[in-house]
Automatic annotation (TrEMBL):
This is LysR family transcriptional regulator. It comes from the Bacteria. Keywords: Activator, DNA-binding, Transcription, Transcription regulation. The lineage of its organism: Bacteria, Pseudomonadati, Pseudomonadota, Alphaproteobacteria, Hyphomicrobiales. PANTHER family: TRANSCRIPTIONAL ACTIVATOR PROTEIN NHAR (PTHR30293:SF2), TRANSCRIPTIONAL REGULATORY PROTEIN NAC-RELATED (PTHR30293).
Length: 296
């Protein structure tokens, strides 16, 4: 097992740029730090520094070790801060990113249990999924809500926890729904259609489904913001897809009627974290609430 004191000495030297400067900062003899780093190198079986002139430069193994050390000590600082806040009765910071393709009402349903986990202050931001993945990789976020798991090809250390799935349905303003409901789904051929932005799992699934069913709708709008798409749908500009679980909301908030559900297509939502075993109290509450919903 890695000796974390030795790892800390390595980290301080890498940040300071030399053993002498790190020794001054740590109030230790340079020989002590040098010996501890040599022991760490022996344990890891890799050289972490190489001499360049009078200075030190990280080897490829050293660069890799530094990236892990950055994460380890950042997590340690966050742990200390959260435990201190709990002990002092202060709010626990909960930083969450929501992919812009996730409907806001779905995001609310998934995140709301997190605010019941004691004194939590949630800082929520919406962005492109790729940027959120980069943020969580460097521990600037505690959680990302997404419509897909973390792709292994990104090389980001993280874990995807399923929060549940829902079927897709089509909705429209009452007059438009009445016109195209009969003969659904074949009636969608030639119908004015509003769709989610390129790259969303809903859009990709529906594109495949349209092709399999031989349906060719007339695409009149493509939206990255699902709320804007629903607003256009409410105004009667076209038929639009949405998670079937939101049928009541579509009828109430958006005055839109159900045409029908799509067989064979579901959208799954994920909580993506950097930890396999969830520990942040808000993240645990969100995961437990999702499990309870699936059990009903």
């Amino acid at each position: 097992m890695i000796n974390y004191k030795q790892l800390h000495y390595f980290w301080r030297v890498a940040k300071a740029g030399s053993i002498a400067r790190a020794a001054t900062q740590l109030h230790l003899a340079p020989q002590t730090i040098s010996a501890q780093i040599s022991t760490l190198e022996d344990q890891l079986g890799a050289q972490l520094f190489k001499r360049v002139g009078r200075g030190l430069e990280l080897t490829p193994a050293g660069e890799l070790t530094l990236s892990y050390a950055d994460e380890i000590f950042q997590i340690g600082r966050e742990l200390e801060a959260n435990l201190r806040n709990q002990a002092d009765g202060k709010d626990i910071l909960f930083r969450v990113g929501v992919a812009d393709v996730v409907p806001k009402s779905i995001a609310y349903r998934l995140l709301a249990p997190g605010l019941t986990a004691g004194r939590v202050r949630m800082v929520c931001r919406e962005d492109k999924l790729e940027r959120l993945f980069a943020e969580i990789a460097v521990h600037r976020l505690d959680l990302v809500i997404a419509d897909r798991p973390l792709p292994p090809a990104l090389g980001v250390k993280g874990h995807s926890h399923s929060l549940g799935r829902t079927r897709i349905a089509f909705f429209a303003a009452a007059d438009l729904a009445d016109r195209y409901r009969e003969g659904f789904p074949q009636s969608l051929s030639g119908a004015p259609m509003l769709i989610a932005g390129e790259g969303s799992t809903m859009q990709m699934g529906l594109t495949r489904w349209f092709s399999e069913q031989g349906i060719e709708p007339r695409i009149v709008g493509e939206f990255e913001d699902s709320a804007l798409m629903k607003a256009f749908g409410q105004a009667g500009m076209g038929i639009f897809p949405a998670p079937a679980v939101l049928a009541d909301e579509m009828a109430g908030q958006f005055s839109s009627s159900l045409l029908g559900e799509v067989e064979g297509i579901t959208v799954e939502y994920f909580a993506i974290s950097v930890e396999r075993k969830l520990s942040h109290p808000a993240v645990v509450a969100i995961s437990e609430a999702a499990k309870a919903d699936r059990g009903r």
